[in-house]
Amino acid sequence: MSLISSISRPGPSTSLSRLLKPQFSLESRRYAAGEAGPVGKAGYLQKLGSAQKSKMRKKLPMYKALPASQLDRPILVSNKPQFDPPVFTPAAIKAATAVGQPFVINPKDNDPMKCFGIPRKLWLEFKLLSRPYTVVREVTKDIIQLLEDAKQSSSANTRVVFTGRPGCGKSFLLLQAVESCAQQNWVVIYIPRAVDLVNSTTSYAYDIRTQTYLQPWYSFQTIQRMLTVNKEAFTKIKLVEDLVLEKSVLAKGTTLDQVIEAALAERGVSVAQAPVYLEAVMKALEAQTQYPVILAIDDMQTLYGKTAYRDPHFQAIHSYHLSLPRMLMEFASGKRSFQKGAVLGAISASQTTHPIPLELRDALDLHNENYRIASPYEKRDKVLVEYAKGLKNMAVPEKLTLAEAIGVFEIWKEQQVFGREKFFYDEAFMGKYTESGGNARDFVWKGLLATLDT
Amino acid sequence: MVHILGINLPNGALVRLALTNIYGVGHHTARRLCARLQVHDQCKVSDLSPFQITSLASFLSSPATAPPLPRFPLAKPDYVPPPPSVSAKSLIDAFMEHRKTKALKNPDPLKNLKIESELRREIRENIAHQRMIGSYVGRRHAMHLPVRGQNTQSNAKTAKKLNRLGRY
User: Fold this and answer.
1) So what's the pLDDT on residue A444?
2) For residue B68, what is the nearest residue in chain A, using CA coordinates?
3) Which family, according to UniProt (chain A) (predicted)?
4) B117-164 architecture in CATH?
5) What does pTM read for this prediction?
6) With 0-12 CB in 10 A as exposed, 13-18 as middle and 19+ as buried, what is A193?
7) So what's the pLDDT on residue A81?
8) A16, part of any domain
């Protein structure tokens, strides 16, 4: 049986929680005025006390994979040598033999992957793989070179968005770029799921000063994560002006780590003022020239589309009237820029509720057979057109080359996800590579993980 | 557990779903109420601030007499916020002054919201009115039979159970 078969079928928690859904609340609402009850006797759930009912309502915990140390049964012990690819470092990936080579990312405690998180699909893949393995591609080397060139120039000159077919490797490429920058002491700001900024999952409140809707909780999380990842750099970067808060003032010249630690110390009060802290931190990062800054945004198209937020009159709030998407779009459009650094974005096809908006398609010139035909008479939002100006399209190759596909194959083979003694690995590889047409996600999920042996 | 107008909202529930426990508030009205209070979709009842709870309770106690909602200005792309030396209070006062000069359009639909005892009274009065004028609808309510032309040869169990003049 495959390692992922337990994940592919629905877990018991789903079916059980549906079965245990209590009926009593419906009855009590109907007969709230004290009218005669239903014909017949009260059922089992109606007779239960409230404590028991709330116990039954509790869901079962999520089933997690056992840690490797607990896998001590003889059947699970493998005699094969452990897969030990080289560690993903900027120096290692620059080598000529790096293309097609699998690497492993060893995230430290302050790694952007651990602190900012990663997109859902990557999270699931790394969960199955047990360690974050990644393959270096030709396009990875191109991006690394682009970032080398961007190190000394303004971020307004390097505003790139990765586009391409679903599953061609945009999010992976963005993660590789972020990891590479983090290891080269860049200041890293990584937004792995920009959809969370616009889908009404975090608090929002109107602010008359900025005339936008602030997002206090997400801003607080962002400054907390930025401090953890960029601690060393923040001890040297200072505020460019006084930070005026409700009950205190942080003077110009205070280092950013002291600013954010002051916010974290008084969490109860600071969450509401977190957007003010974030704005001050971003201004300081804009002004400084010591460290190049990378602003990486996955699910970038969600920033340019409709949001799920509503104003008190129940009118939809545009993304450019929300503080965080507005700030990210200002950097993406070049209205604001870092002295040194780059803005990288990646379109996501996984967000089916957030298709790529027309304004972004126009800016990136995505009018080809892969997208729906857009009439020139369809309305474009002028503000969004302004915020999408100057973005450069970097098309990620649709197909993995043979060498790259071999690297991916090797990772999953060494995880013993498929295959057995005397298995025809060459035939399996060529078959699945051809079936998927070289598409990375299809090669793994519909190819390697969907064999009869998996 | 948060109590609003005597109705208990469970702590772990989403606010926009917990509000439907109020008689007269369905999913659409609950969403409108959440928008009015700037409560996001995934907010749980335990995450509500005391200010939000009190403003919700005060609004629901009499929606018709609630103060009109202001339409706050929204920033254009080139908007530069005023410096911190200008206090938020002065900005709000300036906005309120400006607002007085503008005529109000698009009245708030939540103003006509009726919940709990008021809504029950309205339904009771409607049924009583139908009976008073001697209409078919009134007679059917009095006879505990379906009102809207449903079959009575079979089914009609719900009508026989619930339809009455003193309903609600």
Assistant:
1) 95
2) A313
3) Belongs to the mitochondrion-specific ribosomal protein mS29 family.
4) Irregular (4.10)
5) 0.85
6) buried
7) 65
8) no
